Amino acid sequence: MGINLLKRIGLSIFVLFGLSILIFIISRVVPGDPARLALGPRAPEWAVQKLRQEMHLDKPLYTQYVLWLDGLVHGDLGRSLVTRRSVTTDIKEFLPATLEIVILSAIVLVFGGIFLGIISAKFTNSWLDGLIRVISYLGIVSPAFVWAIIFVLIFGYNIPIFPTMGRLSPGVVPPPMITGMYTVDSLITGNFGTFVDAFKHLVLPAIALAMGGMAQAARITRSSMLDNMGKDYIAAEKAYGIPEGLIFVKYLLKPSLIPTVSVASLDIAALFGNAFLVELIFNYPGFSRYGISAMLNKDLNAIAGVIMVLGVIFVTINIIIDFIVAYLDPRIGLAGR
Amino acid sequence: MTTREASDYSVVNRYVENAKKAWYKFSRNKMSVVGLVVIVLIILSAVFARIVAPYPKHAGAFVNYAEANLPPGWHHLLGTDVFGRDILSRIIFAFRGALIMGVGVLVMVVPIGTVIGLIAGYMKGSLIETILMRITDIFLALPPLILALAVCAVMRPTLFNSMMAVCISWWPWYARLVYGMASSLRNEVYVRAAELIGESRFHIIFREILPNCLAPIFTKMMLDMGWVILTGASLSFVGLGEQPPTPALGTMVSDGAKYLPDYWWISIFPAIAIMIIVLAFNLLGDGVKDMLSTEE
Amino acid sequence: MGDLVKIQDLYVWFRVYGGYMKVLNGVNFSVGKGEKVSIVGETGCGKTTTMKTILRILSSQAHIPKGEVLFEEKDILKMKEGEIKRLRGRGVAMIFQDPMASLNPVFTIGDQLAAVISHSGVQDLDKEKIRQLSINALKEVKLPDPERILGSYPFQMSGGMRQRICIAMALATERALIIADEPTTNLDVTIQDQILALLRELVTKRGNSLILITHSLGIARENADRIYVMYAGNMVEVSNNEELFCNPLHPYTEMLLGCVPKLSGGGIAEGIAGRIPDYLNPPPGCRFEPRCPYATDRCREEKPDFVDVGNGHKVACFKYN
């Protein structure tokens, strides 16, 4: 197990190294003259020259890469052209806000999806199963930003039980910065009122984000449970007098979760991607909205920083999911992908 | 000569027979047929947008503030936007970009991914396989939408550039799918036999292995059409796709979202259009999967 | 009269697209206490369906229009959940055809054995006792190093080892009847004999009843006291082991025996012309009629019942009444 973990981490470091080259190409090579692109066509030549020097664009490409990578390793991602601050500082401020949403969303996705799948499989072909299947289909084909708009429409105006804007209600003081996640920080400092308010602001974006993946998880869980129900080993377990309830929740469920969990890494990755759009609709000052504004403003240092951070997060999620799958399925033996 | 004719006849017969069987398998699920019909309608309306759309002029930079923000009604079935443009007409024209996006991306991505996957799969254990698949891994280390957004961001926002961006994030999935199939097919007896009689690598890869990968590739393509269109809509949603005044579904949704809930129709109808197109391609994809599956 | 299981005129249908598959067509069958019975027939003739009915583990599409399945004089088809549970735990155990598929792939052998033992109705079980019973069961089927096996997963075992584990599960606690459904079909020929010998030895030692399902007359001859021949959802002939081979009565049995390759002379045996009937639209009379060289008009219209020709030898064919 230890050796496989090391191997897996080694491979991931290689992948991240490759990713850094890819990102360097995207942010420094593709745009042609990044400094001119960043400052726009009307900026005076001297300003462009100055930025070129600052970004080391006057040096050969490989030197540029080495300098950039050196900064990356030391946590220096350069200066954002829009906020005029260090990109690292910006990320530290905005990332926790998005993590809050995505973590809640992932919990809803995994547990909600598996729960719905189990119900659907348990009551196959009942009206409940039919309802869940229709909703899943809609969930899969509707993009997160459409759910976000529908939620804003319903909860923002018709049934205003959840807020649809920002991280906190106006007048609520943010908790002191510890992790940067308002819900966690407010709990640590014992400020329960702030916690409830911050949590309420997470609910709608998190569910809008989770819908697609949750529907997918429900469908996969259902079909793999139905598939496994017909297997000999389930018939054998029944024949040996093991109660059907126990078979269902233990001997049928565990093998059936393998495919669901295997695709969960993709679904959770999609959460980060879709967070870019959902945060815009909920006007939520998070990492993704920061990323979008960086992209729209051609803020190349910020773009590179945002993507690199997402790459690290995604690779880490993949490792974790691989290990959960390996726990569920002893046949995999943690040999990597 | 007569035998020749007879065999030609039986070949034609067999094609007809196969087509009938394929249609039977496809149409067994009524929803697949619904998906097919919807897609044909969408394609036709996109191609003949000038004739079908009630106000073709509204697809461009048309302004008529007198008719701005009209709710759905007889003159404007789906209402009008802030510039007084007919939303139905704009949706019909936006289907063009969406379909070009879907077809264009898949036409570029599938051959690239397939060839890389085939070569890496057949050469399993070699340096070439390692290089190709590690590169694929690197591209897979980012969620696809984010990679597409990043590439889009550094290029000028046009429909073509957003297609390129989606391509860059999409080919690795085909490479991986085909790699998996090719690396198991290379152990099949007929591949071994071809190797033994000295067939070239080219022949083995493209004539022996590729034909056996086609069904899953084709199924994935059908299912992917919807997802590519959705990704394109997501890019245009943040403003990184087709630029105004040309209509794009994502742009229409995000522009309209500013006027929720009073002028809800401006963003809700384009959003429903996206859902319908993705749903239809999903239904069609499921039908194609049924059609190409070998089980009776 | 000492019958452990007695099946009378059992019909089992399966709901499918386009109607019912009428698989079992009035099966009559019995097995006595301590008796070893074999059922011989082609693939798809309803052997496994009959056995699944005894355990009530048929799929949800199954429909039983008629028939009785008596276990110790009680009708299994009318049993309540609690009684069924007792039946499965203490009465009957089944060993499945494919040892690769009949063990849960994601749980250890120890976990699965423990589950079987703890639901077998044995009183006063604790962890240590379950473990002891598991180890004993594995020892009995002559598996080396049982403690290591308890912690292993099925995929780490060979086919023969897995089938031994399945037998161990069936015999871990006391049960009246063991059903073995083609237990050796998916195993190497060299291992088949070992597994059958082991099964025979254990069943004889404990005095269990055994139903051995097979499509090989040879296996049936070596392992059973009495042999049923089954064709397309009917028992067509039953008799003592010796008698069946010396004096086969039903045309199907005759033809089956004709198919066995002989060591001396004769060359390769010919098969039986035709195939098993379509269960959606089976022949209305005798189901063997379309393939039978002796078929008459009566065979086309009427279904023959078992006729006793003496000495417990029964045959379902109009030739004999």
For the biggest β-sheet of chain C, the strand order reads: 6-7-8-3-9-10-12-11
What fold name stands as the CATH topology of the domain at 104-243 in chain B? MetI-like fold
State the distance separating the first and last CA atoms of chain B.
37 Å
Strand residues, percent of chain C: 15-25%
What's the β-strand tally of chain C?
12
Order of helices and strands of chain B: HHHHHHHHHHH
Oligomer: heterotrimer
Question: What is the tally of helical segments of chain C?
Answer: 11
Q: Give the CA-based shape of chain B.
A: globular
What is the count of β-strands of chain B?
Answer: 0
- What do the pLDDT scores of chain C average to? 86
Low-confidence stretches of chain C: none
Distance between the termini of chain C: 26 Å
Helix and strand succession of chain C? EEEHEEHEHHHHEHEHEEHHHEE
The backbone outline of chain C, from C-alpha atoms, is globular
What's the topology here?
The complex is a heterotrimer of chains A (337), B (296) and C (321).
Chain A: H1 2-29, H2 34-39, H3 45-54, H4 61-73, H5 87-122, H6 127-141, H7 144-158, H8 182-188, H9 192-229, H10 232-239, H11 244-281, H12 287-296, H13 300-328
Helix pairs in contact in A: 1-13, 5-6, 5-9, 5-11, 6-9, 7-9, 7-11, 8-9, 9-11, 11-12, 11-13, 12-13
Chain B: H1 2-27, H2 30-47, H3 49-52, H4 87-122, H5 127-139, H6 144-154, H7 159-185, H8 189-196, H9 201-237, H10 249-257, H11 265-292
Chain C: E1 3-16, E2 19-32, E3 36-40, H1 47-55, E4 62-71, E5 74-75, H2 81-91, E6 92-95, H3 109-118, H4 127-140, H5 146-150, H6 159-171, E7 177-181, H7 189-206, E8 209-214, H8 217-223, E9 226-231, E10 234-240, H9 241-246, H10 251-259, H11 297-301, E11 307-308, E12 314-315
Helix pairs in contact in C: 3-4, 4-6, 6-7
Characterise the protein shown here.
The complex is a heterotrimer of chains A (337), B (296) and C (321). Chain A has 337 residues and is an all-alpha fold. Chain A has helices at residues 2-29, 34-39, 45-54, 61-73, 87-122, 127-141, 144-158, 182-188, 192-229, 232-239, 244-281, 287-296, 300-328. The mean pLDDT of chain A is 85. Chain B has 296 residues and is mainly alpha-helical. With 321 residues, chain C is α/β, with parallel strands linked by helices. Chain C has helices spanning 47-55, 81-91, 109-118, 127-140, 146-150, 159-171, 189-206, 217-223, 241-246, 251-259, 297-301, and strands spanning 3-16, 19-32, 36-40, 62-71, 74-75, 92-95, 177-181, 209-214, 226-231, 234-240, 307-308, 314-315. The longest helix of chain C has 18 residues, at 189-206. Classes of the chains: A mainly alpha (337), B mainly alpha (296), C alpha/beta (321). Chains in contact: A-B, A-C. Chains A and B meet through α1, α6, α7, α11 and α12 of A and α5, α6, α9, α10 and α11 of B.
